[in-house]
């Protein structure tokens, strides 16, 4: 029997859904009541799945929690799992991303933070160490925060190469390492920064999210602050693929787990009017690597709609057909069980949905 686990981090806690073949969705929560949960992950590499959550308590501050029983109980380390060394002069404001690496790097989990930094764990998220070469990158002094802060919000690893990691920072752009983090290279050529005096800088782009293609790990999709792009060489060069969308502004992008050349975005009107493009709730899908786009609306609200989908609030599971999921700032959580062809509303009246993750956990 296939079972899908769905994690939805919100402004006030984490909600966990489970779906078994032929049955309804069942939800529990909120976990971490009144905490903003900006990052969640499902790590299936161990003998049992491990859930990770980045909570942000207004009283106790940010922390990383783990669960090895699908959320029934949670563990928090006695000392902060993610902490800036004293000599950096920085303090953790938020965990933006939790990313378990693939089988090429057993037990490795990455955390992206605000201030923008990358941390690496070798014990499945119990403790993390700052990746100093990126923190000390010569360009860092010129990084500027985006509207939501200076966050490292995306981590992509290469299933074939444990030394290859790609990250994205708002608003500094894409950086890549091919030597396990010892050296980092800005990788933004072709990505425009229309809000800067030089619209084509080496770094400084406000990248909102990156996703990796299912067929070729070198193919990446990027949603920028204005602009949707594709790279076919791991991020060295980017090509604009936003033609055919009602707007090329947005936050989220996700790739199909099995089908090459297939990706999803949720366009928004503009940076000054961050609501769905045309006030319509529409996910757009490409099945030809961005040459064309099609709106996916079956089951979604047909009238005026103002639910903004944030950068980590659109995801896929790895079922076949794939489940596609998104949540919005209206507190709605939607799911498709057929690659996005049709949708159903799972929950409404939640707090702002900040992030979603889904995974098949049983067969």
From TrEMBL:
It comes from the Bacteria. Keywords: Hydrolase. One of its GO terms (molecular function) is hydrolase activity. GO terms for biological process: xyloglucan metabolic process. SUPFAM superfamilies: Oligoxyloglucan reducing end-specific cellobiohydrolase. This is Glycosyl hydrolase. It comes from Streptomyces venezuelae.
